[in-house]
Amino acid sequence: MAALVCAAMTQPPAAPRDPLAFTVRGGDMGRRIAAHDWAATPLGPVEDWPAVLRHTLAVMLPAQAEIVLFWGPQQVALYNDAYAPTIGNKHPAALGRPACETWAELWDDLEPLLTHVRTTGETYAAKDRPFYIERAGYGEQVYFDISYSPVALDDGSVGGVLCIVSETTGRVRAARELSEDRARLHQMFDQAPGFVAVLREPGHVFELANAAYRMLVDGREVIGRRVDDALPEVVSQGLLGLLDEVQATGAAFRGVDMPVTVLRADGTPEERRLDFVYQPVTDAQGQVTAIFVQGIDLTEQHRALAALALSRDSLELATRMGEIGTWEYDLRTGTFTGSERNWAMHGYPPDTVATRAQFLAAIHPDDRAAMAASFAAAIDPAVRALHDVEYRIFQPDGTMRWVAVTGRGVFDGDVCTRAIGTITDVTARRTEADALRESEQRFRALADEMEALVWMTDETGRFVFANAGFQKILGVAPETMLRHGWAPLLREEHRAMLAERMPLYYREPRPLRGDYPLTTADGGTIWAHGVSQPRYSGDRFLGYVGCAVDVTERHLAGEALEERVAERTAELTRQIAERERVEETLHQMQRLEAVGQLTSGVAHDFNNLLTVVLGNIEMIAHAAANGPLDARALQRLEHVRIAAERGATLTAQLLAFSRRQRLEAKTVDLNDTVRALAPLMASTLGRSIAIEQELADGIWPALVDPTQIELILLNLAINARDAMAGCGRLTLSTANVSLDAPQRPEEPVAGDYIRVAVSDTGTGMTDEVLARAFEPFFTTKEVGKGSGLGLAQVFGFAKQSGGGVRIDTAPGEGTTVSVYLPRARDAAAAAAVPAAPATTAAPIAGRCILVVDDEDNVRQVTADALRAAGCRVVEAVDGDTGLRALAHTRGIEAVVADVAMPGMNGVEFARRARRRHPDLPVLFVTGYADMAAIADVPEEQIIRKPYARDALLARVRQMLDRPAAAGG
C-alpha cells in the first residue's frame, strides 16, 4: 500500500475540476470528508489543498488496510473506513482534528515517531509495537504492526505522515497467554511426583524432563539430546525400539511393572520397576510430532512384595511335619513302652522299657511342668481331658528335639490303669516356625519403616496385618485396619464396587492394581497407587499381600489440567447451547408462521364450503316443512353434494402435501399417460391455449400411482393456464435423466428418474415467489382464485413417490415445472405377470353385514346405505361391542369397520374377530389419519372417507364375492 501511495505521489494527476472528486469511492469516510467544514480547520477549504494531499486520499480511502494520514504542522488526522474501528469512540470526532487532541493519552509516545519521519524523511516500521490508548471508555495496552512513511510535497518537503497499521493485540495477548500456560504447565509437570518427559520427533530428542525423571536417571543432563545419546543403556533393553514403533504407527505403548536398568552417575547399573506410557502427539495431518512419556517408579513397592514373597515361602516350608510314633504308660507298674519310632525320637533302642523317672529326665526342665499338668488332667477320673502338649526332649548324646504328644487315659471304672497316645517329631516345624517368626518380625519391621501402606489378608478378605504406614500416611491405626478393613477409608462408590467385586477376587484370585482415593483420619483425601498379589501355600490360596504409595500430587496435577479443559469445554458447550437455543427459537417461529398460514388457508376454503352446505340444508329444511320438495330443493341438494366433493378434494390436496396419502405405485408408461391426458387438457384449458407434446423415445417405465400423476399433471396445466392469462402455449414433455446431488430440498437425490415436465409461456416467477412456491397456501392469485395448495401437493406427491420437483423460471420468460419419478427396474417382470380373471360380483340383498363405527352419524349413513340395498345390518359402537355381536348373532357374513376408534382400533378388532372366524371379510374405513395402522392391509380391503353410496356397495359386493385373507 505504501509503495502504491508513493508511486501515485511521484506522478500526480491533473487537478480534477471537482475538488471533492477524490471522495467518490471513499465509502463512509469519503462522505464525511466531503461534508466536513474544512474552512474551520487548520487545513482550510478543500479547493486550497495541495494536489498531492487529494491524490493521497483518493488512494487510501478505498483501501482495505487500516490507514491514517497526519497532515501539516498540526498533524491533522484523516483516515479511511478500515481505520475507523481501530480508534473506537474517538471516531468520528478525530476527523480533521490535530492528533495531539485526539491521541492525548499516548501523544508523548506517538509524537516523537511522527516528528522523526517528518524531519528525516525516513520510514519507520515496527512489529507488535505497544501503545497505551483510551478508545472504549477505559485505558488499555494495545499492539500494532506499523509503517509510518513521509508524504512529500512538490518542493520536496514533507507535508504529512502516512501511517499504515494493523492491530495485533489479539495475537500478542494469545501468544503471551500461551507462553504463560506453557510456563505453568512446565511448572506443574516439574512438580508432579510421577516422571514426565517430552521427546521431539523425529529423532526422539528430549524437550522436557521433570524433576522425577531427572531423579530417575540420577541427575544426568538430557535436554536437547537424543535418547540413544543421553541414555545409551536403554537401547539394548528395547526401549528405543518401542519409541520407534510408536513414532511409526501412532499407537500408544503402555508398560506395566517393567524392569528397566538405568546407570547411576558413577556408572553403576541399578534395576528399577516402572509403570509408564509412550503417548504419541500428532499434528493436524496425523503425523507424530512428539512422544509424551509419563510413568511412576514402583521399585520400592516391588522390593516390599519380594520381601513378602520370601516370608510366604518360609510359611509354606513350615507346614511340613514329621512321622508319628505310639506310646503307652502302665500306671500299675510305672513304666513306659512304645513303638520303634517313639524310641528313635528319644535316641533309645526299639525294645526300651523306661521308668517314669527316666522318661521325665529326658524332658527339658522348662517344659516338665506343662507336660505333667496336661498328663495329670488326662488320667484324672474327674477330668479325663485330652493329653495334648508340645515339649522338648534330650537324646542321650545331648541332641534336642521338639515333639508333639497326644493321648488319653484308659479307665477301669473310676480307676485309670494306663494311658496311650501318639508322638510326632515336630523339630523341623518348630525350628522353621521360629525362623518364620523371625522372618515375619524382620518383614514387619521393614514394612513399618516404609513410606507406604503394606497389608496382608486371609482367604476371606479379613486383614491379618497392616503396617505403621497406615498411621503415618492416613492417621489410621493398624489395629483399626485389622478390625474394619478398607471400607471406612473408601468413597461410597468405591465401597460399593469393592463389596460387589470382592467375592470374585477371592473366588478367582488374580493380581490387582489401580489408583484409589482414601479418606484420612482428619477427613482429608489422598490418592494411593496400590498393587496386590495372591499368596499361596502350595496350591492353597491364603489371601492377598499388597503395597500402596501416595500419588496424590500426580493426581492433583492431572485434575488441574482436567479442570482447565473442563472449564473451556463448559464455555464452548454453553456457547453452542445458546446458539442452538436461538436457532431453535427461530425455527419454532418459522414453524408457527407456517402453521398459521396453513390454518388460515384451510379455514378460509372450508368456511366457503360449509357456507354452501349449511345454507342449502337450511333452505331444504324450510322447503320440506312447507310440503313436498320441488326441483329447486333438489338443485340445492346437488349444490351440497358438489361442495362436499370440493371439501374431499381439498383434503386430498392437504394429504398429498403432508405425504400422508396412501399411494398405490404401479409400473406406468408416462408417454401413454401424457397422450391420454391431452384431450382432457384441451377441453379444460380452452382453445386459446395451444398444447404441444415432446415425448422422448425409449422412455423408461416409471413406478408411480397412475391416478395421482394424472391429477398432478392436470393441476400443473391449470396453473400454467392461469399464468398465461388464458392465452399461450403449454408443452408437455418427457425424458430419461440421471441426476447428481440435489441443489434444493425439493429436488430428488442422485439417481435415475423419468422427468415429466409442464412448460408455459406465461409471466414466470420472481426469485422471491420461487423461494416460496412450495409453501402451503402461498399464492399470488386473488382471494377465491386458488387455495395455494397446488404446488405443495405436487411437491408432497413427488417426494412420497420417491422423486422430487424442480422449477425453472424467470419473469416474463415462462415457467417449467419438472416432476422426477423413480424408474421401475422390475417393469419387465411386472408386465409378465398375467392379470387376474374378472369375476362376477355377488348380490348383497339379504346378506347380513356388521357395521362397527364409534361415530354415530357416520355409522348411520353406512348402515342406511346397506339397508337400502337389501342387507340385514347389525350395528356396533366400538370394537368390544362388535366382538360381542359376532359371538351372539348368527349369520354375519362380512364387516365394515372404521379404523380409527378409541380403545380397540378396526385392525385390532379384525385380528381378534378372525381368531374365531378365520375367513371373515372385513372392509376397513379410513379417514387418512390412521395410515400407519393399515400399512399392511391390501388396497382392496380399504375404502376412504368420504365415500359415495355406490362405491361402498361395490366394495361390499367385491368383498362378499372374494373373502379377505385371514391376516388382512
UniProtKB/TrEMBL annotation:
<protein>
    <recommendedName>
        <fullName>histidine kinase</fullName>
        <ecNumber>2.7.13.3</ecNumber>
    </recommendedName>
</protein>
<dbReference type="InterPro" id="IPR003661">
    <property type="entry name" value="HisK_dim/P_dom"/>
</dbReference>
<dbReference type="InterPro" id="IPR011006">
    <property type="entry name" value="CheY-like_superfamily"/>
</dbReference>
<dbReference type="InterPro" id="IPR001610">
    <property type="entry name" value="PAC"/>
</dbReference>
<dbReference type="InterPro" id="IPR013656">
    <property type="entry name" value="PAS_4"/>
</dbReference>
<feature type="domain" description="PAS">
    <location>
        <begin position="439"/>
        <end position="482"/>
    </location>
</feature>
<dbReference type="Pfam" id="PF02518">
    <property type="entry name" value="HATPase_c"/>
</dbReference>
<dbReference type="InterPro" id="IPR013655">
    <property type="entry name" value="PAS_fold_3"/>
</dbReference>
<dbReference type="InterPro" id="IPR005467">
    <property type="entry name" value="His_kinase_dom"/>
</dbReference>
<keyword id="KW-0597">Phosphoprotein</keyword>
<feature type="modified residue" description="4-aspartylphosphate">
    <location>
        <position position="898"/>
    </location>
</feature>
<feature type="domain" description="PAC">
    <location>
        <begin position="387"/>
        <end position="438"/>
    </location>
</feature>
<feature type="domain" description="PAC">
    <location>
        <begin position="512"/>
        <end position="563"/>
    </location>
</feature>
<dbReference type="InterPro" id="IPR003594">
    <property type="entry name" value="HATPase_dom"/>
</dbReference>
<dbReference type="Pfam" id="PF08447">
    <property type="entry name" value="PAS_3"/>
</dbReference>
<dbReference type="InterPro" id="IPR036890">
    <property type="entry name" value="HATPase_C_sf"/>
</dbReference>
<dbReference type="InterPro" id="IPR000700">
    <property type="entry name" value="PAS-assoc_C"/>
</dbReference>
<dbReference type="InterPro" id="IPR004358">
    <property type="entry name" value="Sig_transdc_His_kin-like_C"/>
</dbReference>
<dbReference type="Pfam" id="PF00512">
    <property type="entry name" value="HisKA"/>
</dbReference>
<dbReference type="InterPro" id="IPR001789">
    <property type="entry name" value="Sig_transdc_resp-reg_receiver"/>
</dbReference>
<dbReference type="GO" id="GO:0000155">
    <property type="term" value="F:phosphorelay sensor kinase activity"/>
</dbReference>
<dbReference type="Pfam" id="PF08448">
    <property type="entry name" value="PAS_4"/>
</dbReference>
<dbReference type="InterPro" id="IPR000014">
    <property type="entry name" value="PAS"/>
</dbReference>
<feature type="domain" description="Response regulatory">
    <location>
        <begin position="848"/>
        <end position="960"/>
    </location>
</feature>
<feature type="domain" description="PAC">
    <location>
        <begin position="256"/>
        <end position="310"/>
    </location>
</feature>
<dbReference type="InterPro" id="IPR035965">
    <property type="entry name" value="PAS-like_dom_sf"/>
</dbReference>
<dbReference type="InterPro" id="IPR036097">
    <property type="entry name" value="HisK_dim/P_sf"/>
</dbReference>
<dbReference type="Pfam" id="PF00072">
    <property type="entry name" value="Response_reg"/>
</dbReference>
<feature type="domain" description="Histidine kinase">
    <location>
        <begin position="601"/>
        <end position="825"/>
    </location>
</feature>
